[in-house]
Amino acid sequence: MVVIIKQMKTFRSLTLFSWVFTLSLCFPAKAQVYTNGIVGYINEVLFAGDNLIANQLGNSDNTLNVIFNVGVPDGSTFTLWDATQMQFLPASHYDANTGWSINYHLDYGQGGRFHAAATFTNTFVGNVWPGFGGQIPFTPPLVSNNGLYLLSCYVPLGGASFNEIVGRNPLDGESVRTLNALTQAYSTTTFENGSWDHGAPGLSVGEAAFFNLGPTFAAVPEPAVLYLAGFGVVACAAGRRSRG
């Protein structure tokens, strides 16, 4: 992890330097984050296979053709999770000549499934969420509805907690399911009797995960099933999660 500071800026509770230094201790080696105040870019490695990803730097309209357009392997796919229908939307396919077949938006706080045809590094460029005042711990907009959501942190915080993603403390029975993109293996941790049975969840920069809130008891498809769904086995009307 390499963090370069080009500008000092004092936040309400700590300086940008100390904030980014703290984050640098938490960032995974696969993500390089460069910042200039609240504008910068993130170099994120996407592994061959499925990746549950976030877009934490706003760039124009945050469509796929804007945020994924250099070095993307032909045949890669992207899809969003429909929390209303409890399934993935139709897959968008990438072609180097024509771009993405469906130009989805991937905005702050959302998660998406990117199936990379080969390992590559994507560079996210843009602005930190304008609602971020610089305070850590960070409180995002509340996810107000129960259900199974694919979520990320609004800002690029290493080790982002449940609270910093959902906007409240966890309830008994709620769980977080993450995907190790390198091994293509899922792991789940559940909150019971005031503690997490497999450790408190903490999302890396650029990472998304499934949050089972309510809880709503629903199975998360394994990577092989997700890949098939990306090629049209699963299709449904678009739906967006609700934040109150």
Structural write-up:
With 244 residues, the protein is α+β, with helices and mostly antiparallel strands. It has a domain at 47-117 and 136-233. Helix content is 13%, strand content 32%. It contains 4 helices and 15 strands. It has helices at residues 16-26, 64-67, 162-166, 223-233, and strands at residues 3-5, 31-36, 39-46, 49-53, 77-82, 87-88, 92-95, 99-100, 112-116, 120-127, 147-152, 175-180, 185-192, 195-196, 208-213. Strands 4, 5, 6, 7, 8 and 9 form a 6-stranded antiparallel sheet that branches. Strands 11-15-12-13-14 form a 5-stranded antiparallel sheet. The longest helix is centred in the first third of the chain and has 11 residues, at 16-26. The model is unreliable at 1-29, 33-37 and 225-244 (pLDDT under 50).
* Alpha-carbon Rg, integer: 17 Å
How many E strands?
15
Shape: globular
Sheet of most strands: 6 strands, antiparallel
**Considering DSSP H and I runs of 4 or more, what fraction of the residues is helical?**
10-25%
Q: Per DSSP, what share of the residues sits in E-state strands of 2 or more residues?
A: 25-35%
Average of the residue pLDDT scores: 81
Q: Could you give the order of the helices and strands?
A: EHEEEHEEEEEEEHEEEEH
List unreliable stretches of 5+ residues: 1-29, 33-37, 225-244
Supply the helix-strand structural class.
alpha+beta
SS element count, helices:
4
Cα separation of the termini: 35 Å
